[in-house]
Design a protein that fits this description.
By secondary structure, the protein is an alpha/beta fold. The chain has 10 helices and 15 strands. It has a 9-stranded mixed sheet with strand order 14-13-12-11-7-10-9-8-15. The longest helix has 20 residues.
Amino acid sequence: MPGDVRFGLVGYGLFGAHHARVIESTPGAQLVAIAAKSDRSRLVARQTHAQATIFEDYAALVQSDEVDVVDIVAPNALHYEMARAALLEGKHVLLEKPMALEVRHCDELIALADARQRVLAVNHELRLSSLWGGAKALIDKGAIGEPLYALIELARFPYRRGSEGWRYDMAQVGNWILEEPIHFFDLARWYMSSRGEPTSLYARANGRRVAQPALQDNFSAMVNFPGEAYAVVSQTLAAFGHHVTAKIAGAEGLIWAWWSAADARSDKPQFGLRWGLGETVQELHFDKPTGELLELADQIAAMVRAVRDGAALPCTGHDGRWSTRLCLAAQQSVETGSSVALAAAEGFDAS
Protein backbone atom coordinates (compact mmCIF):
# COMPACT_ATOMS: atom_id res chain seq x y z
CA MET A 1 0.00 0.00 0.00
CA PRO A 2 1.22 3.54 -0.72
CA GLY A 3 2.11 5.68 2.26
CA ASP A 4 -0.30 8.07 3.93
CA VAL A 5 -0.99 11.45 2.34
CA ARG A 6 0.37 14.03 4.78
CA PHE A 7 -1.89 17.02 5.42
CA GLY A 8 -0.91 20.43 6.71
CA LEU A 9 -3.92 22.42 7.94
CA VAL A 10 -3.94 26.21 7.71
CA GLY A 11 -6.56 27.65 10.06
CA TYR A 12 -7.76 26.20 13.35
CA GLY A 13 -11.02 27.96 14.12
CA LEU A 14 -14.30 26.08 14.58
CA PHE A 15 -14.39 24.57 11.10
CA GLY A 16 -10.63 24.13 10.96
CA ALA A 17 -10.90 21.96 14.07
CA HIS A 18 -13.52 19.86 12.25
CA HIS A 19 -11.07 19.47 9.34
CA ALA A 20 -8.35 18.35 11.75
CA ARG A 21 -10.53 15.67 13.34
CA VAL A 22 -11.73 14.40 9.97
CA ILE A 23 -8.20 14.18 8.55
CA GLU A 24 -7.10 12.15 11.57
CA SER A 25 -10.00 9.72 11.12
CA THR A 26 -9.63 9.24 7.34
CA PRO A 27 -7.79 6.11 6.19
CA GLY A 28 -4.73 7.04 4.15
CA ALA A 29 -4.56 10.57 5.58
CA GLN A 30 -2.19 11.86 8.25
CA LEU A 31 -2.37 15.24 9.95
CA VAL A 32 1.27 16.31 10.30
CA ALA A 33 1.08 20.10 10.72
CA ILE A 34 -1.27 22.91 11.76
CA ALA A 35 -0.80 26.65 11.31
CA ALA A 36 -2.95 28.68 13.70
CA LYS A 37 -3.13 32.44 14.10
CA SER A 38 -3.92 32.92 17.79
CA ASP A 39 -2.05 31.78 20.89
CA ARG A 40 -5.20 30.08 22.16
CA SER A 41 -5.76 28.18 18.91
CA ARG A 42 -2.17 26.95 18.90
CA LEU A 43 -2.48 25.84 22.53
CA VAL A 44 -5.67 23.87 21.81
CA ALA A 45 -4.12 22.38 18.67
CA ARG A 46 -1.05 21.19 20.62
CA GLN A 47 -3.25 19.63 23.30
CA THR A 48 -5.60 17.97 20.82
CA HIS A 49 -3.22 16.90 18.04
CA ALA A 50 0.01 15.93 19.76
CA GLN A 51 1.44 14.26 16.64
CA ALA A 52 1.21 17.45 14.53
CA THR A 53 3.82 20.19 14.32
CA ILE A 54 2.19 23.51 15.24
CA PHE A 55 3.17 26.63 13.31
CA GLU A 56 2.40 30.27 13.97
CA ASP A 57 3.03 31.26 10.35
CA TYR A 58 1.37 29.47 7.44
CA ALA A 59 4.44 30.22 5.27
CA ALA A 60 6.53 27.91 7.45
CA LEU A 61 3.95 25.15 7.09
CA VAL A 62 3.83 25.30 3.28
CA GLN A 63 7.64 25.15 3.17
CA SER A 64 7.76 21.99 5.30
CA ASP A 65 9.04 18.89 3.53
CA GLU A 66 6.73 16.83 5.76
CA VAL A 67 3.56 18.19 4.07
CA ASP A 68 2.02 16.81 0.86
CA VAL A 69 -1.35 18.61 0.93
CA VAL A 70 -2.12 22.07 2.29
CA ASP A 71 -5.73 22.25 3.48
CA ILE A 72 -6.75 25.93 3.72
CA VAL A 73 -9.54 26.85 6.15
CA ALA A 74 -9.00 30.59 6.54
CA PRO A 75 -10.98 33.78 5.83
CA ASN A 76 -11.86 34.17 2.17
CA ALA A 77 -9.48 37.05 1.47
CA LEU A 78 -6.50 34.85 2.35
CA HIS A 79 -7.34 31.92 0.06
CA TYR A 80 -5.47 33.14 -3.01
CA GLU A 81 -2.34 34.20 -1.12
CA MET A 82 -2.12 30.95 0.84
CA ALA A 83 -2.94 28.65 -2.06
CA ARG A 84 -0.46 30.42 -4.31
CA ALA A 85 2.30 30.04 -1.70
CA ALA A 86 1.51 26.34 -1.30
CA LEU A 87 1.47 25.64 -5.04
CA LEU A 88 4.77 27.50 -5.52
CA GLU A 89 6.25 25.15 -2.91
CA GLY A 90 4.99 22.15 -4.89
CA LYS A 91 2.16 21.19 -2.53
CA HIS A 92 -1.26 19.88 -3.45
CA VAL A 93 -4.05 22.21 -2.28
CA LEU A 94 -7.53 21.75 -0.85
CA LEU A 95 -9.33 25.10 -0.58
CA GLU A 96 -12.48 25.94 1.28
CA LYS A 97 -14.80 27.99 -0.89
CA PRO A 98 -14.62 30.55 -2.36
CA MET A 99 -11.52 29.67 -4.35
CA ALA A 100 -10.50 33.34 -4.46
CA LEU A 101 -12.13 36.77 -4.51
CA GLU A 102 -11.19 37.60 -8.11
CA VAL A 103 -11.49 35.54 -11.28
CA ARG A 104 -7.95 36.43 -12.32
CA HIS A 105 -6.66 34.95 -9.06
CA CYS A 106 -8.60 31.75 -9.74
CA ASP A 107 -6.99 31.63 -13.18
CA GLU A 108 -3.54 32.05 -11.69
CA LEU A 109 -4.06 29.22 -9.19
CA ILE A 110 -5.31 26.89 -11.93
CA ALA A 111 -2.31 27.73 -14.10
CA LEU A 112 0.11 27.17 -11.21
CA ALA A 113 -1.43 23.80 -10.36
CA ASP A 114 -1.27 22.72 -14.00
CA ALA A 115 2.32 23.88 -14.42
CA ARG A 116 3.47 22.01 -11.32
CA GLN A 117 1.18 19.01 -11.87
CA ARG A 118 -0.40 19.45 -8.46
CA VAL A 119 -3.95 18.65 -7.36
CA LEU A 120 -6.10 21.75 -6.77
CA ALA A 121 -9.47 20.99 -5.20
CA VAL A 122 -12.26 23.23 -3.92
CA ASN A 123 -14.48 22.01 -1.10
CA HIS A 124 -18.00 22.36 -2.47
CA GLU A 125 -19.07 19.56 -0.18
CA LEU A 126 -22.68 19.36 -1.37
CA ARG A 127 -21.41 17.52 -4.45
CA LEU A 128 -20.42 14.66 -2.12
CA SER A 129 -23.81 14.44 -0.42
CA SER A 130 -25.88 11.28 -0.75
CA LEU A 131 -28.88 13.62 -1.14
CA TRP A 132 -27.66 16.34 -3.52
CA GLY A 133 -25.40 13.87 -5.30
CA GLY A 134 -28.39 11.52 -5.55
CA ALA A 135 -30.26 14.22 -7.47
CA LYS A 136 -27.30 14.59 -9.85
CA ALA A 137 -27.15 10.82 -10.41
CA LEU A 138 -30.84 10.77 -11.37
CA ILE A 139 -30.32 13.66 -13.80
CA ASP A 140 -27.34 11.90 -15.38
CA LYS A 141 -29.25 8.66 -15.93
CA GLY A 142 -32.15 10.51 -17.58
CA ALA A 143 -34.78 10.10 -14.88
CA ILE A 144 -36.41 13.43 -15.80
CA GLY A 145 -35.12 13.84 -19.34
CA GLU A 146 -33.04 16.84 -20.32
CA PRO A 147 -32.98 19.36 -17.42
CA LEU A 148 -34.78 22.61 -18.25
CA TYR A 149 -35.08 24.43 -14.92
CA ALA A 150 -33.67 24.24 -11.41
CA LEU A 151 -34.67 26.03 -8.21
CA ILE A 152 -32.27 25.86 -5.25
CA GLU A 153 -33.50 27.64 -2.16
CA LEU A 154 -32.13 28.22 1.34
CA ALA A 155 -33.92 29.58 4.40
CA ARG A 156 -31.90 30.06 7.57
CA PHE A 157 -30.86 32.43 10.34
CA PRO A 158 -27.83 34.65 9.59
CA TYR A 159 -24.35 33.22 9.37
CA ARG A 160 -22.14 32.47 12.30
CA ARG A 161 -19.85 35.45 12.80
CA GLY A 162 -16.67 33.37 12.54
CA SER A 163 -13.47 33.76 14.56
CA GLU A 164 -13.11 37.42 15.57
CA GLY A 165 -16.24 38.19 13.51
CA TRP A 166 -14.50 37.83 10.14
CA ARG A 167 -17.64 36.77 8.24
CA TYR A 168 -19.21 40.18 8.90
CA ASP A 169 -16.09 41.98 7.67
CA MET A 170 -16.47 42.47 3.92
CA ALA A 171 -12.72 43.08 3.54
CA GLN A 172 -12.23 39.44 4.58
CA VAL A 173 -15.35 37.92 3.01
CA GLY A 174 -15.24 39.71 -0.35
CA ASN A 175 -19.01 39.91 -0.66
CA TRP A 176 -21.74 38.11 1.21
CA ILE A 177 -22.88 36.15 -1.87
CA LEU A 178 -19.50 34.37 -1.78
CA GLU A 179 -20.23 33.10 1.72
CA GLU A 180 -23.23 30.80 1.23
CA PRO A 181 -25.12 31.27 -2.07
CA ILE A 182 -21.88 30.13 -3.72
CA HIS A 183 -22.75 26.54 -2.78
CA PHE A 184 -26.09 26.78 -4.57
CA PHE A 185 -24.62 28.40 -7.67
CA ASP A 186 -22.27 25.41 -7.78
CA LEU A 187 -25.18 22.97 -7.48
CA ALA A 188 -27.19 24.79 -10.16
CA ARG A 189 -24.30 24.70 -12.64
CA TRP A 190 -23.61 21.04 -11.77
CA TYR A 191 -27.24 20.01 -12.27
CA MET A 192 -27.51 21.90 -15.57
CA SER A 193 -24.09 20.88 -16.91
CA SER A 194 -25.52 19.03 -19.92
CA ARG A 195 -26.85 22.37 -21.19
CA GLY A 196 -23.43 24.05 -21.33
CA GLU A 197 -21.95 26.87 -19.27
CA PRO A 198 -24.01 29.82 -17.95
CA THR A 199 -24.49 32.68 -20.40
CA SER A 200 -25.99 35.47 -18.27
CA LEU A 201 -27.27 36.26 -14.79
CA TYR A 202 -29.69 38.68 -13.13
CA ALA A 203 -29.92 39.12 -9.34
CA ARG A 204 -31.83 41.12 -6.75
CA ALA A 205 -31.53 41.51 -2.97
CA ASN A 206 -33.27 43.46 -0.22
CA GLY A 207 -33.66 43.74 3.57
CA ARG A 208 -31.02 44.61 6.13
CA ARG A 209 -32.31 43.28 9.42
CA VAL A 210 -28.78 42.32 10.46
CA ALA A 211 -26.59 45.23 11.62
CA GLN A 212 -24.28 44.87 8.62
CA PRO A 213 -24.99 47.05 5.58
CA ALA A 214 -23.45 44.59 3.13
CA LEU A 215 -25.41 41.55 4.38
CA GLN A 216 -28.93 41.56 2.92
CA ASP A 217 -31.68 39.28 4.15
CA ASN A 218 -33.13 38.18 0.85
CA PHE A 219 -31.36 37.28 -2.40
CA SER A 220 -32.42 35.71 -5.68
CA ALA A 221 -30.58 35.19 -8.94
CA MET A 222 -31.64 33.78 -12.30
CA VAL A 223 -28.86 32.06 -14.22
CA ASN A 224 -29.42 31.49 -17.93
CA PHE A 225 -27.92 28.57 -19.85
CA PRO A 226 -27.77 27.93 -23.61
CA GLY A 227 -31.18 27.46 -25.17
CA GLU A 228 -34.12 28.08 -22.87
CA ALA A 229 -32.67 26.41 -19.75
CA TYR A 230 -32.30 28.44 -16.55
CA ALA A 231 -31.82 28.10 -12.81
CA VAL A 232 -32.92 30.18 -9.84
CA VAL A 233 -30.81 30.44 -6.68
CA SER A 234 -32.61 32.05 -3.76
CA GLN A 235 -32.09 32.52 -0.03
CA THR A 236 -33.47 34.30 2.97
CA LEU A 237 -31.59 34.87 6.22
CA ALA A 238 -34.65 36.22 8.05
CA ALA A 239 -35.72 32.72 9.02
CA PHE A 240 -34.96 29.94 11.53
CA GLY A 241 -33.04 26.69 11.44
CA HIS A 242 -31.45 25.61 8.16
CA HIS A 243 -33.64 24.42 5.31
CA VAL A 244 -32.53 23.71 1.73
CA THR A 245 -34.74 22.65 -1.18
CA ALA A 246 -33.80 21.74 -4.75
CA LYS A 247 -36.27 21.18 -7.56
CA ILE A 248 -34.97 20.19 -10.97
CA ALA A 249 -37.51 20.01 -13.78
CA GLY A 250 -36.90 18.20 -17.04
CA ALA A 251 -38.83 17.29 -20.11
CA GLU A 252 -40.07 14.11 -18.40
CA GLY A 253 -40.61 15.06 -14.77
CA LEU A 254 -39.31 16.66 -11.59
CA ILE A 255 -36.76 15.85 -8.88
CA TRP A 256 -37.60 17.33 -5.49
CA ALA A 257 -34.93 17.08 -2.76
CA TRP A 258 -34.98 18.71 0.67
CA TRP A 259 -32.88 18.92 3.84
CA SER A 260 -34.01 20.43 7.15
CA ALA A 261 -32.41 20.75 10.61
CA ALA A 262 -31.90 23.20 13.43
CA ASP A 263 -28.36 23.91 12.20
CA ALA A 264 -26.26 23.36 9.06
CA ARG A 265 -23.91 21.04 10.95
CA SER A 266 -26.62 18.95 12.57
CA ASP A 267 -26.09 15.19 12.58
CA LYS A 268 -29.86 14.59 12.90
CA PRO A 269 -31.43 16.22 9.85
CA GLN A 270 -34.66 15.34 8.12
CA PHE A 271 -34.21 14.92 4.38
CA GLY A 272 -35.66 13.21 1.37
CA LEU A 273 -35.81 12.98 -2.41
CA ARG A 274 -38.73 12.13 -4.69
CA TRP A 275 -39.03 12.24 -8.45
CA GLY A 276 -41.66 11.64 -11.07
CA LEU A 277 -44.39 13.13 -13.22
CA GLY A 278 -48.11 13.38 -12.45
CA GLU A 279 -49.23 10.40 -10.40
CA THR A 280 -46.07 8.38 -11.07
CA VAL A 281 -43.75 9.21 -8.18
CA GLN A 282 -40.72 7.36 -6.81
CA GLU A 283 -38.68 7.94 -3.68
CA LEU A 284 -34.93 7.53 -3.24
CA HIS A 285 -33.84 5.55 -0.19
CA PHE A 286 -30.46 6.36 1.30
CA ASP A 287 -27.74 4.03 2.52
CA LYS A 288 -26.06 6.84 4.46
CA PRO A 289 -27.16 10.12 6.07
CA THR A 290 -26.20 13.50 4.72
CA GLY A 291 -24.79 16.59 6.40
CA GLU A 292 -21.95 19.10 6.19
CA LEU A 293 -19.51 17.21 8.40
CA LEU A 294 -20.23 13.86 6.73
CA GLU A 295 -19.50 15.39 3.34
CA LEU A 296 -16.28 16.90 4.72
CA ALA A 297 -15.13 13.38 5.56
CA ASP A 298 -15.89 12.29 2.01
CA GLN A 299 -13.99 15.31 0.65
CA ILE A 300 -10.84 14.45 2.61
CA ALA A 301 -11.08 10.84 1.41
CA ALA A 302 -11.49 12.07 -2.18
CA MET A 303 -8.40 14.26 -1.79
CA VAL A 304 -6.40 11.26 -0.61
CA ARG A 305 -7.49 9.27 -3.68
CA ALA A 306 -6.72 12.16 -6.04
CA VAL A 307 -3.20 12.67 -4.67
CA ARG A 308 -2.29 9.03 -4.20
CA ASP A 309 -4.12 7.34 -7.08
CA GLY A 310 -4.86 10.14 -9.57
CA ALA A 311 -8.63 9.78 -9.05
CA ALA A 312 -10.98 12.46 -10.37
CA LEU A 313 -11.92 15.29 -8.01
CA PRO A 314 -15.52 16.03 -6.99
CA CYS A 315 -14.87 19.74 -7.57
CA THR A 316 -11.90 21.05 -9.55
CA GLY A 317 -10.27 24.45 -9.73
CA HIS A 318 -12.23 25.07 -12.93
CA ASP A 319 -15.47 24.41 -11.03
CA GLY A 320 -14.34 26.65 -8.18
CA ARG A 321 -13.56 29.41 -10.67
CA TRP A 322 -17.09 29.22 -12.08
CA SER A 323 -18.66 29.42 -8.62
CA THR A 324 -16.63 32.54 -7.82
CA ARG A 325 -17.44 33.97 -11.22
CA LEU A 326 -21.20 33.56 -10.72
CA CYS A 327 -21.11 35.15 -7.26
CA LEU A 328 -19.19 38.18 -8.50
CA ALA A 329 -21.59 38.55 -11.41
CA ALA A 330 -24.53 38.35 -8.99
CA GLN A 331 -23.05 41.08 -6.80
CA GLN A 332 -22.52 43.22 -9.90
CA SER A 333 -26.14 42.66 -10.92
CA VAL A 334 -27.48 43.54 -7.45
CA GLU A 335 -25.47 46.76 -7.44
CA THR A 336 -26.34 47.86 -10.97
CA GLY A 337 -29.85 46.46 -11.35
CA SER A 338 -28.82 45.03 -14.71
CA SER A 339 -28.29 41.60 -16.19
CA VAL A 340 -24.67 40.50 -16.54
CA ALA A 341 -23.61 38.76 -19.76
CA LEU A 342 -21.04 36.29 -18.51
CA ALA A 343 -19.20 35.95 -21.80
CA ALA A 344 -18.89 39.67 -22.43
CA ALA A 345 -18.76 41.58 -19.14
CA GLU A 346 -15.40 42.93 -18.02
CA GLY A 347 -13.63 40.38 -15.85
CA PHE A 348 -15.85 37.52 -17.08
CA ASP A 349 -14.15 36.28 -20.22
CA ALA A 350 -15.57 33.30 -22.03
CA SER A 351 -12.60 31.01 -21.43
